[in-house]
Design goal:
single chain, alpha+beta, FAD/NAD(P)-binding domain, Elongation Factor Tu (Ef-tu), domain 3, 2 domains, six-stranded antiparallel sheet, 17 strands, globular, binds flavin-adenine dinucleotide
Length: 452
C-alpha cells in the first residue's frame, strides 16, 4: 500500500472501492471536512463486469429504476437528494428520457462523478488494489459484488468464526457467501388469498407459506412457457457457477416436464382445503418479513427477462395481479452475513472503525448501494470528530432497508432492495394501494433527518 494511505488517514478516512457506494461515501465524508483516501483498483485490475477506469461505473443497465413519487425507488431518490447525494446530482445532470424511470447516459454520469471527486480538495484517489483489511481506522469497505479475490479471501478469513457474533448459530454460518441466484419477491397484498392457501408441508412450520395450486393442464402450460421464455444475457464468467441445490427454474425446466414438479414445485404434504386433495404442482411463497408484506417465491431463482417473469409468473393461480417488489436474477454476488456482522450505522460489530457498504452488505441495486455508502460517509466523518454515528429512521426507504439487512434471519439472508413492504405499516390503514404508498412516502420524507 502506498504511503498516501498513512498520510491520508492521520486525519482522514480510507475508502476501498470507487463504485456507487464508495464514491458516495468518499464525497459525504469529504464534504464534512474529513480527508479521504479513495482506493480503486481499476484500471490496474478489472472486475469481470467493469469496462472503464471511471468511478461509479454502471455495470449493466443504465436505469436507476422508477422516479415516480409513488414508487419506493422514487422515494429513495428523493431521500438521497435531501441528503445531498453526489450520485443523485450526477444522475439528474445526465438523465436520458425513460418514461417514469430515471435512466442516465452512463458514460457522462460516471465521468461527472469521477470529475467531482477528482476536483474535491479533500479527496485523494489512488489506483491500487487493496488485498488485506487495513490497520488504519476509519475504513469504509465498498468493493461490491465483484470484490477482488484477494480482498474477498481476507474478509472471509476475518469473518468466519467472527468473535463478535452475538448469534449463537453464527458458528454454523459461512459468513461470506458466494451466491448466484435470487428469487422474485411479491407484495403480500397482491396475492389472491381465495386461491393461494396457507399451509406448510405435512403441517410442519405453521402457516408461514402460501401455496398456489396447479392442475395438470396449468402446470404443463406453465412449464412450456418457462422453456420458451427469453433469458437475460449472461456474462461468460457467470455461466458455470450454479449450485446443484439452487438451480434456476429454466435450467430445471430444460431437464424435462417433471423436473420442476419433483423440485421446487413439488406438491407432497400439501392439501388444498378447497378441494381436499393434493394439487398436481404448487408454487410456494415464503414470508419474507415479519409483517407479511413481502413473500419470496420459493426456489424460483431465475434469469428470465423481467418482462417474461411478470408475464409468466402471473399465470400462476393466485398471482394474476402479482406486484413484483424484486425480480429474480442471477449473477455472482459476494456479500457478508449482515444480520450477524453489521450495525445499523454500517459499522462492523466489534470493530466500529470498519464500515461495510454497498452490495457487499446484501443490499441490491445502484442507488440502494449508494445510499448505504452515504450513511457510512456521514458516520465515518462523525466518528473522526468524536460524534456518535447516526441510525436512519425505519420509516424512511433507506432506513428500512438498512434495518432489514441488519435484522433479517441470518440463516437464509438474501440480498434486498428498497420496497414499500420494508416500511412499518401506517398508524391508520389505507385500503387503496396508491393512496397507501403516497402516505408512506409522505411520512418518509417528513422523517428524513438533517444529516448536515
Ligand atoms: C453482472 C452484474 C450486473 C448488474 N446489473 C445491475 C443492474 O442492472 N442494476 C442495478 O441496480 N444493479 C446491478 N448490479 C448490481 C450492482 O453491482 C450494484 O447495484 C452496484 O454497482 C453496487 O455498488 P457497489 O458500490 O457496492 O459496487 P460496485 O459499483 O461494483 O463498486 C465496487 C468497486 O470496488 C472496486 N474494487 C473491488 N475490489 C477492490 C479492491 N480489492 N481494491 C480496490 N478496489 C476494489 C471495483 O473495481 C469497483 O469499482 C449488477 C451486478 C453485476 C455483478
Amino acid at each position: 500500500m502506498t504511503d498516501l494511505l498513512v498520510r491520508g488517514t492521520q486525519t482522514g478516512i480510507i475508502v476501498i472501492g470507487g463504485g456507487l457506494a464508495g464514491s458516495e461515501a468518499a464525497w459525504q465524508a469529504a464534504e464534512r471536512g474529513a480527508d479521504v483516501c479513495l482506493y480503486e483498483m481499476r484500471p490496474a485490475v478489472f472486475t469481470p463486469a467493469h469496462k472503464t477506469d471511471r468511478l461509479a461505473e454502471l455495470v449493466c443497465s443504465n436505469s436507476l429504476k422508477s422516479d415516480s413519487p409513488d414508487d419506493c425507488h422514487g422515494l429513495l431518490k428523493r431521500e438521497l437528494t435531501a441528503y445531498g447525494s453526489v450520485i443523485m446530482t450526477a444522475a439528474r445532470a445526465h438523465a436520458v428520457p425513460a418514461g417514469s424511470a430515471l435512466a442516465v447516459d452512463r458514460d457522462a454520469f460516471a465521468a461527472e462523478v469521477t470529475a467531482r471527486l477528482t476536483r474535491h480538495p479533500r479527496i485523494t484517489i489512488v489506483r491500487e488494489e487493496i488485498k488485506a483489511i487495513p490497520e488504519e481506522r476509519p475504513v469504509i469497505i465498498a468493493t461490491g459484488p465483484l470484490t477482488s479475490e484477494r480482498l474477498a479471501g481476507a474478509l472471509r478469513d476475518r469473518f468466519v468464526n467472527y468473535p463478535a457474533s452475538a448469534d449463537p448459530s453464527a458458528d454454523l454460518l459461512d459468513l461470506l457467501y458466494f451466491y448466484d441466484a435470487i428469487s422474485p419477491v411479491i407484495a403480500g397484498d397482491s396475492i389472491d388469498r381465495t386461491v393461494a392457501f396457507a399451509a406448510s408441508r405435512y403441517n410442519k412450520g405453521g402457516d408461514d407459506y402460501l401455496n398456489c395450486p396447479m392442475t395438470r393442464e396449468e402446470y404443463r402450460l406453465f412449464w412450456e412457457e418457462i422453456r420458451a421464455a427469453e433469458l437475460t444475457p449472461i456474462h461468460s464468467f457467470e455461466g458455470t457457477r450454479y449450485f446443484e441445490g439452487c438451480l434456476p427454474v429454466e435450467v430445471l425446466a430444460a431437464r424435462g416436464e417433471d423436473a420442476l414438479r419433483f423440485g421446487p414445485m413439488k406438491p407432497v404434504g400439501l392439501i388444498d382445503p378447497r378441494t381436499g386433495r393434493q394439487p398436481y404442482a404448487v408454487v410456494q411463497l415464503r414470508l419474507e418479513n415479519r409483517e407479511g408484506t413481502m413473500y419470496n417465491m420459493v426456489g424460483f431463482q431465475t434469469r428470465l427477462k423481467w418482462g417474461e417473469q411478470r408475464r409468466i409468473l402471473r399465470t400462476v393461480p393466485g398471482l394474476k395481479s402479482a406486484d413484483f417488489l424484486r425480480y429474480g436474477s442471477i449473477h455472482r454476488n459476494t456479500f457478508i452475513n449482515a444480520p450477524t456482522l453489521l450495525l445499523e450505522t454500517m459499522q462492523l460489530k466489534g470493530d466500529p472503525g470498519i464500515f461495510l457498504v454497498g452490495q457487499l452488505t446484501g443490499v441490491e441495486g445502484y442507488l440502494d448501494s449508494a445510499g448505504t455508502g452515504l450513511l457510512a460517509g456521514v458516520n465515518a466523518a462523525r466518528l473522526l470528530r468524536g460524534e456518535t454515528p447516526v441510525v436512519l429512521p425505519e420509516t424512511t426507504a433507506l432506513g428500512s432497508l438498512i434495518r432489514h439487512i441488519c435484522h433479517a434471519n441470518p440463516r437464509d439472508f438474501q440480498p434486498m432492495n428498497v420496497n414499500f413492504g420494508l416500511l412499518p405499516p401506517l398508524d391508520e390503514p389505507i385500503r387503496s394501494k396508491r393512496e397507501r404508498r403516497q402516505a408512506l412516502a409522505a411520512r418518509a420524507l417528513r422523517d428524513v433527518p438533517d444529516l448536515s
